[in-house]
Structures are given as structure tokens and as C-alpha cells.
């Protein structure tokens, strides 16, 4: 089947309108104040199936409060290329599915309208089946440190995090 040019443009326009009509998820991190904001899937949905409809929850309650028992522990690290946080989580506190092998939210357009003010890009991985989470914010010119193309590698493979001791 061959589509007329008008039909192709209409399909493209409709897909852009769908993305543009969505809300913007703003994630933040601040090691000085222990602030972490994560994008989470709707309750009961798999992370990989909710790239377009995730929502932000933060330790400071803006826009929505992350439960105080979500983090079992968390660590921060920063250098000239990126700032990151990672740790173990209580997935039940936010209704993550324990059978979910995990997934990724980032600044790619197919992940919805996600932004990290002050950084060029970010990548977040949640792994409910092993209780791990990680998020990295990369500075302009160092976007390659955020490894957004390795969502199936988890926190260890995508971001090189190997320290899982509290």
C-alpha cells in the first residue's frame, strides 16, 4: 500500500501532536540536599510499557512526594562529566511490579517529554526484580557518558555501577 504525501504528513503531524500534548517530566538531583527525582510508571504497569506515561516523584515533594521508605539506601557521585545517584529501592512503596525486569526513562523523544534542567541529557534505570535504581545526568559535550542506548544492560552495564553495598 502506498500512502499519498498528504497522508504521510498527516500521520507524522498526529504523532507529534500526541507527544506535544503530554506533560513534561522534570527530573532533578542534588547531592548537597539529598534530593532525587525519579520517573516512575503508573501503578501496576511495566516500566518498558510506560515510557510515554511515566510521572515524576521527588524526595522534596515537588511535583509529587516519593515515599520516605522508597530508598533502602542511596549514593551520589559527581565528576566533570556527570552527576549520578544509585541504590536499592523498596519497589512495593510505589507499586512497581516485582516481576518487572526493568526499563529506562531518558531524554529521547520516544520516552516522552523528559528534561533535566542544567544538563544536556539524563538516563534513569529502574530494576524492580532486583531492587536497584540509578540515574545519571550528563553535562553538555559529555552526553555519551549517559549511554541511553543500553537500557537492557541495567545500571551495571549501562552506567558501570558495581558498588551495591549500603
Strand arrangement, largest sheet? 5-6-10-9-7
Question: For the CA atoms, what is the radius of gyration?
Answer: 17 Å
Residue-averaged pLDDT, rounded? 84
User: What count of helical segments does DSSP give?
Assistant: 2
The class by helix and strand makeup works out as alpha+beta
How far from one another are the termini? Answer: 57 Å
* Percent in strands: 25-35%
Tally of discrete structural domains: 1
Measured as a percent range, the helix fraction is: 10-25%
List low-pLDDT spans: 1-21
Order of H and E elements: HEEEEEEEEEEH
Report the sheet with the most strands, covering strand number, pairing sense and barrel closure: 5 strands, antiparallel
Instruction: Count every beta strand, where a strand is a DSSP E run of 2 or more residues.
Output: 10
Q: Specify the overall morphology.
A: globular
Can you describe this structure in just a few lines?
The protein has two helices and ten strands; from the N terminus they run H-E-E-E-E-E-E-E-E-E-E-H.
Describe how the helices and strands are arranged.
Elements: H1 5-21, E1 24-26, E2 29-30, E3 35-40, E4 55-58, E5 71-78, E6 82-89, E7 103-106, E8 113-115, E9 121-127, E10 132-138, H2 154-159
Parallel strand pairs: 1-8
Antiparallel strand pairs: 2-3, 3-4, 5-6, 6-10, 7-9, 9-10
Tell me about this structure.
There is one protein chain. The protein is globular and about 35 Å long. The N and C termini lie far apart (about 55 Å). The chain has one domain (about 25-160). β5 and β6 form a beta hairpin. It has a 5-stranded antiparallel β-sheet with strand order 5-6-10-9-7. The longest helix has 17 residues, at about 5-20. It is an alpha+beta fold. About 15% of the residues lie in helices and about 30% in strands.
Amino acid at each position: 500500500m502506498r500512502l499519498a504525501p498528504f497522508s504521510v504528513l498527516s500521520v507524522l503531524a498526529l504523532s507529534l501532536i500526541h507527544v506535544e500534548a503530554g506533560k513534561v517530566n522534570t527530573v532533578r538531583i542534588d547531592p548537597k540536599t539529598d534530593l532525587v527525582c525519579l520517573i516512575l510508571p503508573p501503578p501496576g504497569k511495566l516500566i518498558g510499557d510506560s515510557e510515554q506515561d511515566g510521572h515524576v516523584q521527588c524526595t522534596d515533594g515537588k511535583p509529587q512526594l516519593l515515599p520516605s521508605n522508597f530508598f533502602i539506601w542511596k549514593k551520589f557521585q559527581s565528576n566533570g562529566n556527570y552527576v549520578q545517584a544509585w541504590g536499592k529501592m523498596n519497589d512495593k512503596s510505589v507499586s512497581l511490579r516485582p516481576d518487572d525486569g526493568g526499563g529506562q526513562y531518558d531524554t529521547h523523544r520516544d520516552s516522552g517529554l523528559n528534561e533535566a534542567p542544567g544538563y544536556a541529557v539524563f538516563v534513569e534505570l529502574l530494576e524492580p526484580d532486583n531492587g536497584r535504581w540509578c540515574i545519571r545526568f550528563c553535562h553538555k559535550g559529555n552526553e555519551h557518558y549517559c549511554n541511553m542506548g543500553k537500557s537492557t544492560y541495567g545500571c551495571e552495564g549501562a552506567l558501570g555501577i558495581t558498588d551495591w553495598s549500603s
